[in-house]
Amino acid sequence: MQGLFRRPSGIYFLRISVAEALGTTPGYWLALQSQRDLWTARQTAKERKRIKRMTLPEPIAA
C-alpha cells in the first residue's frame, strides 16, 4: 500500500482499483475529489479578504 503513494500515478491506480471493487468508475471518484477540493477552497475563501472586481477598459472607437 505504501508503494501506491510514493508514485505520482499511485492515486490513479487506487481510484481504478476502488472503482473496480465497488462497481463505479474512476471518474466518479475523481468528481468526488474535485467537489471536496472546491468545498474546501470555498470554506477557506470565507476567511480571506475580499478582492475588488476588476473593470475592463472601454474599447477605443476607430
Question: What features would you describe in this structure?
Answer:
- It is a single chain.
- The chain is elongated and about 60 Å long.
- About 60% of the residues lie in helices and about 0% in strands.
- The chain is mostly helical and about 60 residues long.
- The longest helix has 20 residues, at about 25-45.
- The chain starts with a helix and ends in a 17-residue tail after the last helix.
- The chain has helices at about 1-5, 10-20, 25-45.
- The chain has a domain at about 1-45.
Strand fraction = under 5%
Order of helices and strands: HHH
Decide which structural class fits the backbone: mainly alpha
Radius of gyration: 20 Å
The number of helical segments is 3
What's the pLDDT, averaged over the residues?
A: 80
The biggest beta sheet, please? none
How many strand elements? 0
Shape: elongated
Percent in helix: 55-70%
The unreliable regions are none
| CA-CA gap between termini | 65 Å
